[in-house]
Design a protein that fits this description.
By secondary structure, the protein is an alpha/beta fold. It has two domains: about 35-155, no CATH class; about 160-310, no CATH class. Helix content is about 55%, strand content about 20%. The chain has eight helices and 14 strands. Strands 2, 3, 5, 6, 8, 10, 12 and 14 form an eight-stranded parallel β-sheet that branches. A six-stranded parallel β-sheet has the order 1-4-7-9-11-13, with no helix packed on it. The chain is elongated. The protein starts with a helix and ends in a 6-residue tail after the last helix. The model is unreliable at about 15-30 and about 135-145 (pLDDT under 50).
Length: about 325
């Protein structure tokens, strides 16, 4: 009986020892991944590091994506206008459009690589189970269409567009402050000209938008009249800016009136510049017609400058 107990104890200890060894072996052979869901990337640089996993797909626009050795993507990669570097494993297809891709020796891709306007460099020891499909539109010899598209996409990044729009708004506010303090009475005269006769202001402004650049260019290419053309073009540009300031003054006055605020001309014009700047920035995002809408609005301001200059509407 005593011998039976000793044998049972030894067998139990052996089972515990084997279980511990087996558990240690499993932990060493199956590394633990830090798992993330599907990702949508815009701009900047994204690095999937060793022992990190994307349990889904990756889609990116204008970004630099790096899959390090030991990283895992359990889905497809779709990248538009960016740079891709794969050193780890991708359990899906790689779809790239415009840019550059590097597939290094340690990379393992179980799907296809589909590329359009893309330059893919595959190192000799990389393992690709699928096919590499390439489509390129016919271009002139030596032309690099992919790089051109990438350059365009660089400017189309949402963050960059936001910065540009913010700079436009701040520029309008700064010009409004400067103009309203230096030329307060002339600016009020332009604003009154717009209020007095909106149709005439719009018609005069729209006609000037069409005729003034053409006449200026004709004068510029004529040697004798080139100084006149440059002066006309400069006056045209200054009139457009002055018109926007006048519209800002009108908008600020209306807003303070609606809010029942007793503000002077200067602060109300600054408020109007902020509102006009934000509104025109949002309108410009509208495809195709956004520019035309802003052109119609700007025509009122330019027409007001012309009408007030010739004394059609007195202050």
């Amino acid at each position: 009986m005593k011998s039976y107990r000793i044998n049972f104890l030894l067998a139990s200890l052996l089972a515990v020892f084997l279980t511990a060894c087996s558990g240690a072996f499993v932990n060493e052979s199956a590394p633990i991944f830090e798992t993330f869901p599907s990702q949508f990337l815009v701009g900047d640089t994204y690095i999937l590091k060793n022992h990190q996993k994307i349990d889904g797909n990756i889609a990116g626009i204008g970004t630099t994506l790096i899959i390090e050795d030991g990283a895992l993507v359990m889905g497809d990669i779709c990248l538009v206008g960016g740079n891709l570097k794969i050193s780890g494993r991708v359990a899906g297809d790689v779809n790239v459009f415009a840019g550059t891709s590097n597939v290094e020796n340690t990379a393992i891709i179980t799907g296809n690589i589909n590329q359009i306007f893309q330059k893919v460099n595959v190192e000799p020891n990389a393992l690709i189970s699928g096919e590499i499909n390439t489509y390129v539109f016919p271009t002139a010899v030596g032309g690099n269409t992919g790089e051109g598209i990438v350059s365009i996409l660089e400017w189309l990044r949402p963050v960059r567009i936001l910065y540009v729009k913010l700079a436009q708004i701040l520029a309008l506010v700064f010009v409004t402050i400067l103009t309203i303090y230096l030329f307060k009475l002339p600016t009020l005269k332009v604003s009154n000209a717009i209020r007095c006769n909106l149709p005439a202001a719009w018609g005069a402004g729209l006609l000037s938008y069409i005729a003034a650049p053409i006449i200026s260019i004709v004068f510029i290419i004529t040697i004798c009249l080139s100084p006149v053309g440059l002066i006309m073009l400069l006056a045209f540009l200054l009139s457009i800016i002055w018109g926007w300031v006048a519209l800002s003054s009108i908008a600020g006055g209306k807003i303070t009136e609606w809010l029942k605020l007793d503000w002077d001309v200067e602060p109300s014009a600054i408020l109007g510049a902020f509102v006009i700047g934000i509104a025109t920035s949002l309108i410009s995002i509208i495809p195709c017609i956004g520019f035309l809408i802003n052109l119609v609005i700007a025509s009122f301001g330019l027409g007001g400058v012309l009408l007030s200059r010739f004394g059609t509407c007195k202050e």
